[in-house]
Amino acid sequence: MNDVVITFLSTTFDKAAQGLAGEGRRLADSLGVRLHAVVVGKPEADFTANLSRVADKLVFVDQSELSLYQPETYLTALTQLFQTLSANTLLLGNDTYSQELAPRLAHRLGGSAVGDAVALRVVDDKFLVTRQVYGGKAQAVIELKRRPAVVWLRARAFSPTSPRDVQGEISQLTLALQPDTRTRLIEQKREEQGEVRLEEARVIVSGGRGIGGPEPFESELKPLAELMGAQMAASRAACDAGWVLPTWQVGQTGKKVSPDLYLAIAITGASQHMAGISEAKTIAAINTDPDAPIFKHSRFGIVEDYRKVVPLLREKLSELRK
Amino acid sequence: MNIVVCLKQILDPEIPARDFSVDTEKLEARQGSASLVTNIFCENALETALQFRERSGGAKITVLSYGPASAEDSLRKGLAMKADAAALVLNESDTNPDPLRVAQVLAAAIKKLGIPDLIMLGRESGDWGVGQTGGLLAEELGLPCLSFVDHIETVAGQLLLKRQTESGWEQFEAKPPVVVTITNNEYNVPRIPKVRDVMSSYRQPLETWRPEDLGIAAETTNQYYEVVELFVPVKETSCEFAQGDSLNERVEAFAQRIVAVINTL
Fold this sequence. Notes:
Low-confidence stretches of chain B: none
Order of helices and strands of chain A: EHEHEHEHEEEEEEEEHEHEHEEH
Structural class of chain A: alpha/beta
Oligomer: heterodimer
CATH topology of the largest domain in chain B: Rossmann fold
Number of strands of chain B: 15
Radius of gyration of chain A: 21 Å
Strand content of chain B: 25-35%
Structural class of chain B: alpha/beta
CATH topology of the largest domain in chain A: Rossmann fold
């Protein structure tokens, strides 16, 4: 069979996970095959309930060798797992681990990988993936020439599917794994950053090089973001300068976000940055330069020094939102 | 400790969008006014290697590239930044080799150089941005791999690798040899070579091979994937600038637009 497999390395049914499940379902339906969901981790009630209304078969793998992410062991596990299923498409999310594993997994399975997909289709048995290239300046359609097709999807670029009436069949699997300790995770740190992943945020307030230092992020942008119910982010320039955490970086090489509103403050809008926000519904900008590229992508904007705008904007927003 | 850093030469990704166009026949970007530069993450990788050498008190760093004859410039710049040796595998035929082909060529070159303790690559390139070469190279060589690393140290013969994740960072111990892909942070901004070192880099030896010299077919069709379409998406957005006689009025208008969007959520 040419079934489709979707793989979850965490058990949160967020927008990204819903999109992954939805696209898996649509692809399986269009090919007339079954959809398998492979989940590494504890089968949590909510997650399982949601996923079982989308996938035909759910396989949970929860064993001590996989309690921490060890890249080599995970890779072996996923290779084995996939081989137990009669499938030739493997879809993954956009988390760090999936991105890291996808090409190696494809290599071990004799398939082809591509990542950051924003659209998938199979035409005349050709597996075609659309993704951005050249820092978002162009789009390419890439044909994967080997099977399985191993593809990780951009978060929120794919829509969820409505739950089905039938329940998928749930099973547990225990793999025979030899821990591979050539690399070994010894410490893990989550940086403080809102309650939701940046990729999931509906409103984002983002600052660039023009912010001028770390303090205004704290004193000016943070209270504004709080008023707007927004997550905070930054351009690569601001992250490289060490003003904010690298996890805040949005752009081709940072996070690819798709909020409903992206407020870009003192961000020029180099294509590197724009590649990270191409899926944003509305972009708004505050910038001193009316010719800044960011305005070419913005629905609305204001040409002014953010130092003058932001304090006033906070006042106005608190009045308007009363 | 021996280190190989892989460098890719690309069209300068910083050119403005209006100067960018694609050749829909050859399925690649036209060079236009863009100069050729070393991919920034490859330079971050080299910078990370150089700092590692400085801290650990010694390592031999070889820069390696698979590309057209012009890729020599990236390698010379690597030497000017103080890499110890350079090797180029000439790509005289493939315009767009897929990442598996690139990984196979690099693997063959690395075997010829002798498997080092550490193989470093950029996390992805500024042109196609596919981000697979490191992982595929590790598989070709049968080595472990870690991505998005931004700091490397050595402790008692082990490597200590710090890498960025979507939500923070992770620290790994690794037994060499290992392949790492490097991402940017505030400390690995590539150094600017001294003029004197740039001059002397052109007098240093540079190994040049053809794929045949490494036992690899010179010309090959892509087995892994093929770009079948390339286009510049048309985006029509016109920006409405906040109007008003005073700053107060303009910010008021701007605030109303923001609230209008937020209220629909």
